[in-house]
Amino acid sequence: MAMDNRAAALAQVEGLIRDIPDFPKPGILFKDITPLLGDAEGFRLSIELLADAIEGPGPEYIVGTESRGFIFGAALAFHLGAGFIPVRKPGKLPADVHSCEYQLEYGTDALEVHRDALHRGARTLIVDDLLATGGTARATGDLLRRLGAELLGYSFVIELTFLNARQQMTDAPVMSLIRY
Q1: Residue 100, CA distances (Å) to 50, 87, 103, 116 in order
Q2: Angstrom distances, CA of residue 134 to CA of 2, 42, 61, 103
């Protein structure tokens, strides 16, 4: 995508993200992607922008984290002709899994991936809608390393820069389309 077109596309995508104050609790300004998903042109542009940001040899697999990572990840995988690997909350996958626990602001959570989801050395890209604290993304990266996959990078539609997650994610390049 040409630079002029890229700037216009980014502006169009950003214009489809709305702020919801005090959700899910007072003091939080929630970045709602629902209008972006509902706008065919905006959603298409977001996928094209994510694809255009990939450098070097492309991924064999896009890895999406439950749940909004499934939306952008599956669409990007289709666009690139890559496979899609879901990373889920505990108890959602039917076969043998690797599990990784990670810290939340107020407690812990866990993610799982099938043990046979990827071959050793598989080129992977983690895709999600939002980079906030980075806990989910880092846990997903840990799962991929357990499988012996090569992590090419992390790709997000939105990054909340004031939370400084990028500084903690030194294992692979981090790309985000829109930064707040």
Answers
A1: 26, 10, 10, 16
A2: 30, 25, 21, 10
Q: Catalytic amino acids?
A: 68, 105
- Residue of 140, 126, 107 lying closest to 175 (CA atoms): 126
Q: Are 17 and 35 in contact (CB under 8 A)?
A: yes
The residues near 8 (Cβ < 8 Å, ≥ 6 apart) are none
Tens of pLDDT, residues 96-133: 999 999 987 678 999 999 999 999 999 999 999 999 99
Q: What is the pLDDT of residues 126-162, one digit of tens each?
A: 999 999 999 999 999 999 999 999 999 999 999 999 9
- Of 55, 54, 72, the closest CA to residue 63 belongs to 72
